[in-house]
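Researcher: Next entry in the queue.
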Amino acid sequence: MNVPSYSAASPDQRAVRGIFSHLADRIDRRLRIRPLGIISDFVADQLPHRIAEIKNTEQRAEAVKALGRSINAMLAAGDYEAHLLNLTQSEFGVAKTDIQYLLNIVYQMSAFAGLNHYDAELTVGERLRRIAALSCEREPSIDVLSYEDMILTNPVESDPRVYCLDSAGVEERDFCLGHQLIERDLQFAVDTLLELRDQVGADARWCLTLCLERLESANYILTRFHDHMSPDLFGEFREFYGKNPYKNRLAPSGRFSARVVAVSVLLMGEEIFRKKPQFYRDVYRLSEYYPRGCIGAVFGWLSSDKRSTGAQPGWLRGKAAFPKIATVSPVIERKSTQIRELYASCVDALDRFTRMHRKSALKYTIEPGRPIAGVEAWESMDAVLSQRLLTAAD
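Model: Structure for this entry, 394 residues:
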């Protein structure tokens, strides 16, 4: 595997420094990415205005129903189902985000307006429901707005999909952009660790140095979340990304970053299993919420037959030994003291990343008492966050 140099593949540092800078109150859309034509135009340009109108009117129920009629009328004006199936993969990702953003907001605003389940389904409408189901058939995924829709396929750098206007919309864009940049760093870390694990003669120092640099970059971005994100602006857009009020589904959450799982498995897979097996049980139990490609690869590493199934493997049920070969540990054990120290630095960077994520979630969600998006009603958010810590929580 030919891994590019850190400097060549690193995120735009201006973009990183601009996250949560609060210097602008509008989004500069530098490049229009509109795979569904007028549907994409509506999501990117008009939807935030329609949401603001609904929130500001006394006739909320009628305003939400009118929104549903508008969306279904646009869908009726063209053969969007056939168009969806003929898009390239990159175009399809954005198109699915557009569709799921529409579906999600109709449900969220229906609940805001006090509609019952039956009226909410009528407001969603058959055409929107059908094209949303079709998008999930082409790219198997959970049937609500997912972390992948919100973060990975949302074109946030040039033409973001957001629900809010003005400064809150900019903060919403920065929230998604920050996560997207972190995901890029994590993917690069995964690639370098796979190089180390799988390629005979791989330069361990080079691979681990690049991995460490990317984990430190991810830490820097996550620290900007903790130190600079506005609690008030976060509260304004956060309400639109809650659990679907009519379905027993979890909402998009950093809990469902498959790349965090991948880096954790590659670096510390066996130790995490020994100390916190619930981490793995939850990943398998909630596998449908993770981006399928990445989590499928992780399941392949952890499976005796290399299949990307979400079924719990024998080792997680006490019927086999943990597949240490899925990790870089066998390689590291054969290396020099200096390499093992560099590896330990990577583990420390990952630990600091998981701790900062927990700290930020506590600051912006739990302490202010905001509803929790990525956990079941019976789960403790703090316990879920602590599953990924390599040592005891502070």
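Model: Confidence is low (pLDDT under 50) at residues 1-9.
Researcher: Noted, moving on.
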